[in-house]
């Protein structure tokens, strides 16, 4: 897909802005939709709009899906093993709250697209579920819930042995609604899409079928950015930079990161899996394939990030 031009004859610049599900909650208040956090997220999106981009917002769903899964599991509801349905439900839940907050701030309509992401039924992730989701359970609780067909993995948490549900996390191959999102951005519309990494589907005999999996939100965002020919992939998190040796005495902020160096660091395990590593991988893939701009920075410092004053900026090389 190739970009068009606006009414002034200028090329339409497109950006994918990826928000984490944690960006919308305040754990201290026990709220998955803290009004103040939603305002900060909306302000971040507005900053990108003011910079002249046509924007597709993506978002995580970890805390929200975890809460929903807990309710389904403890009630014995078989939907607990239909993660495609769980993701779809949280896309609507979060999409509504986020789009309304964005609209109230920007006075610009935000359109929520229920987004499916194609994966391969032959992806090795289906044979080895490793992605933890939801809350921690005791051994007794986990054994009881296994009767629903749920896989659990043991974790050591502050000296206690607890269990957490683990699910397959296959590679995103295609954004099914990608062409629609592309056309909407070309019209200057503001889109909220790919919530929770997208609803995972496979293609069997020419028909789509939902599968029990969770797609990484950042990798799905990179795939979306690539498919719509975005000029910018902006991943917003809780820190201003990607750090080498994070939270250690010798931690170092990475202001610029070449894709080859990022690959080496990913392979050596410098970045924490399930946290910053998929964000680095997403930016690396996008820049490798497109040569465009990718930035990781904090939700509160988007303007400085776009100006090159803070954040980790990826470049091809």
Mind sketching the topology for me?
Elements: E1 13-19, H1 35-50, E2 53-59, H2 62-74, H3 83-106, E3 110-112, E4 116-118, E5 131-137, H4 139-145, E6 152-157, E7 160-167, E8 174-175, H5 178-186, E9 190-193, E10 199-204, E11 207-210, H6 217-227, E12 232-237, E13 242-244, E14 252-254, E15 256-258, H7 259-267, H8 277-290, E16 293-298, H9 302-306, E17 312-315
Parallel strand pairs: 1-2, 1-12, 2-9, 3-9, 4-10, 12-16, 15-17
Antiparallel strand pairs: 4-8, 5-7, 6-7, 10-11, 13-14, 16-17
Helix pairs in contact: 1-3, 2-3, 6-8, 7-8
Helix segment count? Answer: 9
Question: What is the CATH superfamily label of one domain?
Answer: Acetylglutamate kinase-like
- What CATH architecture of one domain would you give? 3-Layer(aba) Sandwich
Rg on CA atoms, Å: 19 Å
| Proportion of residues in β-strands | 25-35%
- Spatial shape: globular
Structural class: alpha/beta
* Main beta-sheet strand count, sense and barrel state: 8 strands, mixed
- Helical content band: 25-40%
- Overall number of strands: 17
Under CATH at level 1, the class of one domain stands as Alpha Beta
Helix and strand pattern: EHEHHEEEHEEEHEEEHEEEEHHEHE
Low-confidence stretches: none
Give the N-to-C terminal Cα separation: 24 Å
GO molecular function: carbamate kinase activity
Pfam families: AA_kinase (PF00696)
InterPro entries: AceGlu_kinase-like_sf, Asp/Glu/Uridylate_kinase, Carb_kinase
Organism: Candidatus Marsarchaeota G2 archaeon ECH_B_SAG-G16
């Amino acid at each position: 897909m190739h970009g068009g031009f606006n009414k002034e004859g200028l090329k339409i610049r497109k950006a994918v802005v990826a928000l984490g599900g944690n960006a919308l909650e305040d754990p201290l208040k026990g709220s998955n939709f803290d009004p103040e956090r939603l305002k900060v997220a909306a302000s971040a999106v507005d900053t990108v709009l003011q910079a002249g981009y046509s924007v597709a917002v993506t978002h995580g769903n970890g805390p929200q899906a975890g809460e929903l899964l807990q309710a389904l599991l403890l009630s014995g509801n078989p939907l607990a093993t239909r993660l495609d349905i769980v993701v779809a439900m949280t896309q609507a839940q979060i999409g509504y709250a986020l789009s309304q907050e964005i609209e109230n701030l920007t006075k610009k309509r935000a359109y929520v697209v229920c987004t499916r992401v194609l994966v391969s039924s032959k992806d090795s992730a289906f044979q080895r579920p490793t992605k933890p989701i939801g809350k921690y359970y005791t051994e007794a609780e986990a054994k009881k819930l296994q009767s629903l067909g749920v896989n659990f993995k043991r974790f050591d948490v502050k000296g206690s042995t607890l269990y957490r549900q683990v699910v397959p996390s296959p590679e995103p191959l295609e954004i099914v609604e990608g062409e629609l999102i592309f056309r909407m951005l070309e019209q200057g519309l503001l889109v909220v899409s790919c919530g929770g990494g997208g609803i995972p589907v496979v293609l069997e005999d020419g028909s789509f079928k939902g599968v029990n999996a969770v797609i990484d939100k950042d990798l799905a965002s990179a795939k979306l950015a690539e498919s719509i020919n975005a000029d910018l992939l902006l991943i917003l998190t809780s820190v201003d930079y990607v750090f080498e040796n994070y939270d250690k005495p010798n931690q170092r902020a990475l202001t610029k990161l070449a894709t080859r160096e990022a690959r080496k660091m990913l392979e050596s395990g410098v970045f924490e899996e399930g946290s910053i590593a998929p964000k680095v991988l997403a930016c690396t893939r996008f820049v490798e394939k497109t040569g465009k701009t990718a930035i990781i920075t904090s939700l509160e410092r988007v303007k400085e990030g776009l100006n090159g004053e803070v954040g980790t900026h990826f470049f091809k090389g």
